[in-house]
């Protein structure tokens, strides 16, 4: 049996690919989210753009497209209708439409430990700058 794991990178790539397809068909906005659907039987249509959805072992080929769709549904990015059609949700649309800068800001906001370390380093640098400035002002002129 083939046991290739689904990675978060694969799920993000698939979500962004489905978002781009939706965007090409309906443009920006969520008004047509439930008109755009993905069939679970259409895995072969996505293989060219995302070859990691296929795993092979000898003569056996397995598509991971349905597994990725199920994971996206569990995360709330997709919703299923009878297990055959999958639709983007508003949450999935928002997540897929984020730019690299917005993803960075979200990461920054969700990890306050990093902010604390940088704030402490900034405090140390500003303290050193202040100390050097005080020494320079108190130095007698020659």
Could you explain how this protein is built, in words?
With 142 residues, the chain is of the alpha+beta class. The protein folds into two domains: 8-97, Orthogonal Bundle (Arc Repressor Mutant, subunit A), CATH 1.10.10; 111-138. Helices cover 56% and strands 13% of the residues. The protein contains six helices and five strands; from the N terminus they run αβαββαββααα. It has helices at 8-26, 43-47, 65-74, 90-96, 100-110, 112-138, and strands at 38-39, 54-57, 60-63, 78-81, 85-88. The strands form two sheets. It has a three-stranded antiparallel sheet with strand order 1-5-4. Strand 4 and strand 5 (85-88) form a beta hairpin. Helix 1 (8-26) packs across helix 3 and helix 1 (8-26) packs across helix 4. It is elongated, with a radius of gyration of 25 Å. The termini are far apart.
**Strand runs, count:** 5
pLDDT < 50 runs, ≥5 residues = none
**What is the 3D shape?**
elongated
Q: Helix and strand string, N-terminal first?
A: HEHEEHEEHHH
Using only C-alpha atoms, the radius of gyration works out to 25 Å
Number of helices: 6
Biggest sheet: strands, sense, closure? 3 strands, antiparallel
Class per helix and strand makeup: alpha+beta
Tell me the CATH architecture of the largest domain: Orthogonal Bundle
Head-to-tail CA distance between termini: 83 Å
Average predicted confidence as pLDDT: 88
The level 1 CATH classification of the largest domain is Mainly Alpha
What count of domains describes the coordinates?
2
How would you name the oligomeric state of the polypeptide chains in this document? single chain
What portion of the residues fall into strands of 2 or more residues?
5-15%
Helix content: 55-70%
How is the largest sheet built, in terms of strand order? 1-5-4
By CATH, the topology of the largest domain is: Arc Repressor Mutant, subunit A
């Amino acid at each position: 049996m083939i046991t290739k794991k689904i990675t978060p990178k694969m799920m993000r790539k698939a979500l962004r690919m489905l978002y781009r397809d939706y965007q090409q068909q309906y443009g920006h906005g969520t008004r047509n989210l439930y008109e755009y659907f993905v069939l679970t039987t259409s895995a072969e249509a996505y293989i060219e753009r995302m070859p990691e959805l296929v795993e092979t072992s000898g003569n056996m080929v397995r598509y991971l497209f349905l597994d990725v769709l199920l994971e996206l549904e569990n995360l709330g990015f997709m919703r299923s209708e009878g297990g055959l059609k999958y639709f983007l949700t508003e949450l999935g649309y928002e997540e897929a439409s984020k730019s690299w800068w917005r993803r960075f800001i979200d990461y920054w906001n969700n990890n306050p430990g990093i902010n604390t370390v940088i704030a402490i380093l900034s405090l140390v640098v500003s303290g050193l700058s202040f100390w050097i400035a005080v020494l320079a002002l108190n130095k007698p002129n020659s």
